[in-house]
Amino acid sequence: MHSFENASTSISDGKLPKVSIVTISYNQADFLTDALRSVIGQDYPQIEYIVLDPGSTDGSREIIEQYRPRISTVIFEPDRGPADGLNKGFLHATGEVFGFLNSDDILYPGAVSAAAKVLAERPDVDVVSGHAKVIGPDGRVLRLAFSDRMSVAGYLYGAVAMIQPSTFFRREAYLRAGGFNTGNRASWDGELFLTMAANGARFATSDNIWSGYRLHNQSITSSRKLDSVASQVHEGLFLRMMGRRPNRLDMLISRALKTWKHVINPRDTCERLLRGPIYGRRVE
Fold first, then answer.
1. How far apart are CA 281 and CA 270, in angstroms?
2. Beta strands 203-214; 106-107: pairing state
């Protein structure tokens, strides 16, 4: 695993794209300060930071107010869920590159510089994903997590995982996808990336760790509280993309592709075997 921390901010053509980052905050006061500081403390010179809170009651808004002078835009208004909040945030974004960070995750130093450099130097790439450290409530590293390169088939068959806080994309790719589906309450980020891929967006991965993906017992990943909803959403996406519902043959294809994923990504396989899974993992 290579470190991204020495990544240069210099761009070959001399142009530094503005990067707009959106954070939606809702009753995550225990982790919010770390999230805000991780963006505000980036070394990249052109970051537009947009923070939204639809009505936290745990002190989150007071934390945001403390950092308001260093946040580009603060929006305190109700929304219809995370996807709607993200859409509202990106309506205010003026950057050429977009990213979004949940209020319980963090970006590591140099992450934005590294991602912007890839997109500035690679006009053939629309979306770039780095890897992550999976961290617990106290910041302790539980394991590493690796982004796969997106493909429509890979995603539909459950053989692609992209580390959301380590993913950055061009504004045009987001606009072509139509933003987030506000009706998706379980995997709004995955659907966005899938729609981008279906629309012809070109994906790449960077062999660097860009974020800390936090697990805690209230998080969707650890609690599995949206399992049934996520299953329904995924079946709907399969129907939309394939024009039919999955059958027994598709189950076999899914198993084969997941097995192949473990073969071609031995680092992730080793992490899973030695340090346990990510999804459904309970942490103290």
1. 16
2. antiparallel
What is the Cα–Cα distance from 51 to 73, expressed in whole angstroms? 6
DSSP H/E element including 275: helix 266-275
Residue 86: C-alpha distances to residues 11, 34, 182 (Å): 28, 20, 9
Query: In the chain, what are the domains?
Result: 19-274 (3.90.550.10)
Give the separation between CA 141 and CA 173, rounded to whole angstroms.
32
Question: What is the pairing mode between strands 203-214 and 167-170?
Answer: unpaired
Pairwise CA distance, residues 136 & 216, whole Å: 6
List pLDDT tens digits, range 99-119: 999 999 999 999 999 999 999
- The model's pTM is 0.92
Question: At a CB cut-off of 8 Å and minimum separation 6, what does 106 contact?
Answer: 34, 35, 38, 135, 165, 211, 212, 214
Rg, the chain, Cα only = 18
Tokens 């994903």 identify what position?
129
